[in-house]
Every structure is written in structure tokens, then in C-alpha cells.
Amino acid sequence: MTLARGALTEAVKDRALALGFDRVAVGSADPPDHGSAFVAWLEAGYAGTMDYMERGRAKRLDPRRVLPGARSVVAVALNYHQGEPPEGDTWAPVARYARGRDYHDVMTPRLEALLAFLRDAAGPEVRGKVYVDTGPVLERGLAARAGLGWVGKNTNLLHPDLGSWFFLGILLTTADLEWDGPLPDRCGTCRACLDACPTQAFLAPYVLDARRCISYLTIEHRGPIPGQFREAMGEWVFGCDLCQTVCPWNRKAPLTREPGFLPATPLPPLASLLEMSEAQFRRRFGGTPLTRPKRRGLARNAAVVLGNRKDPEAIPALTRALSDSESLVRDHAAWALSRIAADEVLSHAGDH
């Protein structure tokens, strides 16, 4: 027995919440409202080396190219906020979303269960596809139109209750569901996120040049960190949370109910990241987002942070990294050693 449109929509929402998602909204599968802005962003080169954005351009501009006959989008949010970290937290150099289990592994099975429920309730002719930033859909724009939040000046989706500390998932379906309306933009005149970015990655409100973004540089970018951004990376070895931590909408965000998103063990000392073998890296970080930049990328990032710390105790590990099998790691270790050496020379000069 199939449900009527309104009853089906409410049943799907109830099921999404029962599966553990924190918020759910339903919207249209029409082409995204900000498609022209996305095209302009791509053509300006702001995607950097994320070539998959260009390859999937046509599909991103029309969900019906991804799923023929698509009518509705079910957008879900899963909170990962862990609260303020304790003093001396070893995970401080890692963006909060990446400190526990890989969110794809947590969210995707639940979205697939939601799709199975929808097909049971609406009939086997209903088709659907689920995505957790893994496919050619503009999830953020579709979710904003559905009313899951508004796109903030830092280009994150913001919800009045959750802030921006949540993962986003999409169920694209041919089912005819009742749509929610979008939320108003409530950023107002605030510039906190724009002003906090150490690399000036926001060229204007709502416009991010990924090539300057610390999250992009430490995760998606595969080559050398441009010299002009290394010092600005500061302590960030994977990702960056600055534009979120300063956002007023995140001040009262609730804590996550997902224990898997919390770190199970301390982050190893950064110097040890330089000396991990491929096997050790996979064993330590398998099943977490930290595998995304691969061992060479994480070691590259660790070298930059150690150089920024200018800690002489890192010299032995950095020196050994000069013999790393990856030139990317060798080059960044050499840069870090030069930073520490220069600082040592200056400090000794001050003694005379």
C-alpha cells in the first residue's frame, strides 16, 4: 500500500530522524538556483586542482542528468560538534570533522536505509540515489533550497540551531514529495568569518578561492604548499576550522550524539607523522578522513607546521625526512629546517 504525498513526506522525515539524522528537509530536484554562480566560480579557476568539479559540471547543473525523472531532494544533516577542546588537546591541528570515523561510512548506510524505506512506502517504481559529497550534485545549494539552512558568507551551510557543525547528505529521488521552503539568510552585516581567514581566501562574501583555503591546501591539493601560504597555515595539519569557530551561529551549537565522531586515541606527535611508513599510516588512520591527502600529503603538512613552530626538538625527525622516498616530503622538510635554523641564528644573535 502506497502513501499519499503529504503522508509519504512526513513518513520519510520521521524515518530520517529515527535513523539518527539531526535535521531533514525536502526540496525540488530542479536545476540549482545558483548554477550560474557555480559556473563563474569554475571559470575563474577558484576550484584549483579539483578537476572533478569541471568533469561533472553538466550533471551538477541539473540533478535530472544524475537521476532521470528526479523530482525531489531529501537533504539531511548530521551534527559532529564536539564542544570546545580541552587545553593541550593533541587533535587541535586537525579540523573537528576529521577527528573520528569517516563520515561517509556513518552517513551513507543510513541514507541507503532511508531510500529503501521510501521505496517500500512509495512503491518499487520509485528510484533514488544517495550522495555524501561523493557525486556530481551541488548538495549545498539543493539543501539550502530545501530549507536545511542558508549559505553563509563563509560558503558553509548554516542552520539556526546547529550552526555549521554538521555533515550534509542528499537523497535524490523520483518520488513526488511535498517541498519545504528555504530559510532566509541571517548573516546580516557580520564579517567574522571573512576577517578571520589567515590566507584571505574569501574574495568577497560568499566567494571562496579554494586555492588560498587552508582546508584545500592541506587536503585536496596534491602538490607543494605555495610558499606564500606556509606560514599562514600556522598549526593546521589537516583542514581548518577558523571560519566556523568565529561564526556567532556556532556559539550555541549542540554536541553531537555520534560517539564515532569523537577521537578514540590521541593524535600522534607531528614529528612521528614524518616517519610513518605507508602501512603504518593506513593502520593508524584507516577509516578516518585523514587518509584523504595520503601519507605524503599528511607528512608534507606536518613538516610545514613543525617549521612554523620553530621547535629545535623537531630537527632530528625533519633531518631524517630529507631522505624520504617522496620529494614532496623532502622539500617541505628542508623548508621547515631552514625556518628553525633561521630562528636559531636570530636567537643567538640576540644573545650578543
Overview of this protein structure:
The protein is of the alpha+beta class and 352 residues long. It folds into two domains: 5-173, no CATH class; 268-352, Alpha Horseshoe (Leucine-rich Repeat Variant), CATH 1.25.10.10. Helix content is 40%, strand content 10%. It has helices at residues 5-18, 35-43, 51-55, 57-60, 63-66, 103-122, 139-146, 192-196, 214-220, 227-230, 242-245, 270-273, 278-285, 294-309, 315-321, 327-349, and strands at residues 23-28, 72-79, 128-131, 150-151, 157-158, 166-173, 202-204, 207-208. Strands 1-2-6-3 form a four-stranded antiparallel β-sheet, with helices on both faces. Strand 7 and strand 8 form a beta hairpin. Helix 15 (315-321) runs antiparallel to helix 16 (327-349). It is elongated, with a radius of gyration of 22 Å. It starts with a helix and ends with a helix. The model has no long low-confidence stretch (mean pLDDT 95).
What's the SSE blueprint?
Blueprint: H1 5-18, E1 23-28, H2 35-43, H3 51-55, H4 57-60, H5 63-66, E2 72-79, H6 103-122, E3 128-131, H7 139-146, E4 150-151, E5 157-158, E6 166-173, H8 192-196, E7 202-204, E8 207-208, H9 214-220, H10 227-230, H11 242-245, H12 270-273, H13 278-285, H14 294-309, H15 315-321, H16 327-349
Antiparallel strand pairs: 1-2, 2-6, 3-6, 4-5, 7-8
